[in-house]
Amino acid sequence: xxxxxxxxxxxxxxxxxxxxxxxxxxxxxxxxxxxxxxxxxxxxxxxxxxxxxxxxxxxxxxxxxxxxxxxxxxxxxxxxxxxxxxxxxxxxxxx
Length: 95
Description:
By secondary structure, the protein is an alpha+beta fold. It has one domain: ACT domain (Alpha-Beta Plaits, 2-Layer Sandwich). It is 42% helix and 33% strand. The chain contains 4 helices and 4 strands. The chain has helices at residues 12-15, 20-32, 58-72, 84-91, and strands at 2-10, 36-42, 49-55, 74-81. The protein has a 4-stranded antiparallel sheet.
């Protein structure tokens, strides 16, 4: 599974329908797309939501991002992420 960071922004209509039920629906969409929601945060500033999720591949992450927008009116920017320790190994200079 690959980890992805999803940063979301509510539409004007979506913000009117915020509820715990919709949070559960979002989790269901992620799971229906083959993913696992690891953490979900409400944020302030340029974004409204931050989700840390795992998907089998990028296609599944894209599918979930689009499905969440259609179902909830929340647009997501979705990017793959790896732990810094793994990044350090991948980018270590060979001498």
